[in-house]
Design a protein that fits this description.
With 119 residues, this protein is an alpha+beta fold. The protein contains 5 helices and 3 strands; from the N terminus they run αβααββαα. The longest helix has 25 residues.
């Protein structure tokens, strides 16, 4: 995936994960990395910054597999921020799709229209 696309959306993905349930860092990384190429060097700075900005709180929870885990919990402020970013994203991506789909939604449609225009 294009890194320019990815950079702007990772924060929204982190917020979206935590809007659903409290999670620890590795869980967030694992969930997001199933869809996007991310790692701890991408996610942990976002978690630290959003915690500092009071969009998340943290707490420790005992783990059956080692030391306690640091969980992140979205705050009301964080949830409202998530909703605002989500609205901005939906508006942005809707406009992008309007532009991209002018030529059709399938490669065949786009190729046909291109050939008609250039022949």
């Amino acid at each position: 995936m294009n890194s320019q696309f990815k950079r702007g959306i990772i924060e929204l993905c982190v917020l979206s994960e935590l809007a659903m349930e409290d999670m620890y860092g590795y869980m967030i990384i694992n969930n997001i990395s199933q869809h996007l190429d991310v790692n701890e060097n991408t996610i942990y700075p976002i978690l630290r910054r959003l915690t500092k900005e009071e969009y998340f709180t943290t707490y420790l929870q005992e783990s059956s597999n080692g030391p306690p885990r640091k969980y992140y919990k979205i705050t009301n402020k964080g949830f409202n921020y998530y909703l605002k970013l989500r609205d901005d994203w939906d508006e942005f991506i809707g406009g992008v799709y309007e532009i991209l789909n002018k030529g059709g939604k399938k490669h065949e449609d786009i190729l046909r229209k291109f050939k008609e225009r250039t022949n």
